[in-house]
Amino acid sequence: MVDVTLKPRLTGSEARHRLALWEGQKENNGMERNKKKEKNIMKKLHITTSIILMLILLPTLATTIFTVEAYDYNYGYASNLYSTNWLSFTNGTMNSSEVTWTAFIQIADLFEDAGYTWLWIEPYQTYLPTGPAYGEVQYWGSPTPDEVYDQIDDNIEEHSDFSTALYVGHGGPYGFYGYTDYPNDPNTIPDLISYAGIESQLSSSPTFQFAFNWVCFGGNDAPDGAPSAWNPMWWSDPSEYPYTWIGFDTASPWIIDYLNVGNTMKNWLVFFYYNALNSNSIMTSLDYASQYCNFDDFAETPLDQGTYHMYWPWGEEWYSGQMHIEGNVTATYLPTDFWIGGPLG
Questions:
Q1: CB 284: neighbour CB atoms within 10 A?
Q2: Any idea where the domains of the chain sit in the sequence?
Q3: What distance lies between CA 91 and its chain's CA centroid?
Q4: Ordered DSSP codes for 37-55
Q5: What are φ and ψ of residue 151, in 5° steps?
Q6: How far apart are alpha carbons 272 and 267 in whole angstroms?
Q7: Distance, CA of 294 to CA of 190 (rounded, Å)
Q8: What is the pLDDT of residues 53-105, one digit of tens each?
Q9: Which of these, 56, 104, 246, 323, has the minimum number of CB atoms within 10 Å of its CB?
Q10: Which fold has domain 12-41+70-115+135-340?
Q11: Which candidate, 83, 82, 110, places its Cα nearest to that of 96?
Q12: Residue 286 and residue 272 in contact, taking contact as beta carbons nearer than 8 Å
């Protein structure tokens, strides 16, 4: 369920100030997959409920909100952020892999803080918070194909109400790339994480309702390829499965490229997720992120107009492209509260 409580928007200067503060808060976050699938969620909820019930008996502490660090608690919504260690690009003082990692930390933080999982306490006829709404928030430096496919299976099993994926890196019309033993060799192509493989897993599941593939050629074969892969059920009945896919036709820009003076693509991407996790539709979030970067709306940006150019240093060539959006862009929201039991669960 989407939390429709309106939250204050940042102005462009406030947003850039907050982003500047975030830049200094890099954490030593590991990239190992958190394997907690064996944990029994009911046992955890029982323990949490017992603690909450005790707190109810203590008036001075009854309003305390307990949250847990969101990796994978096998309940609630899921957000997975993927990238690659293949072909990092440095332009001036900015390195694409380092900036992507910084963006992932900031975006993961937004998901962790987006809302709560609310547990219905039957004896008291009320909901109390038990943890984050996004019970899984993971960011992968360079996954293998099997790790991505396994993670999708986990999302279908444990987070079927809503899951979302962001990939930033390299790919083509048939898929994208993760880990390689040859990160600096453009001629040794990593194993493909294929859109066909993803689609086969999701052929009967509407689990993924929002996917963002910051990768070349993802949208060229639409609706086939990346757009249909993440939620193939949407194409059979768009009204029943609110869904949006965002990617690129032809070349995607480097995340360190400038959208305009003073704002990198990375800035815009983090601003987009900030707004999307504050009760705005995907379309409204595209507009607000663009306004933070001093455009009137998304339609005015080089992303929508297809007027940006990216440099491919391994061929010493320039390419252009355009952001491609498929789905119910005005009806898709990133949920911010998860309800267990009771009238809303």
A1: 18
A2: 12-41+70-115+135-340
A3: 25
A4: TTS-HHHHHHHHHHHHHHH
A5: -65, -40
A6: 9
A7: 38
A8: 333 332 322 222 222 344 799 999 999 999 999 999 999 999 999 999 999 99
A9: 56
A10: Rossmann fold (3.40.50)
A11: 83
A12: yes
CA end-to-end span of the chain, whole Å?
Answer: 9
Q: Quick one: CA dihedral 14, 18, 19, 23, positive or negative?
A: positive
**What is the C-alpha separation between 201 and 151, in angstroms, rounded?**
11
Residue with tokens 């390195």: 95
Kindly state the tokens that stand for 12. Answer: 């462009």
The candidate with the shortest Cα–Cα distance to 38, out of 158, 145, 161, 156, is 158
Measured in degrees and rounded to the nearest 5, phi and psi for residue 63 equal: -95, 5
Q: Report which residue type is found at 28.
A: N
**Alpha-carbon torsion 224, 333, 289, 96, what sign?**
negative
Residues 6+ away with beta carbon under 8 Å from 315: none
Task: Give the residue from 181, 178, 176, 182 showing the smallest Cα distance to 217.
Answer: 176
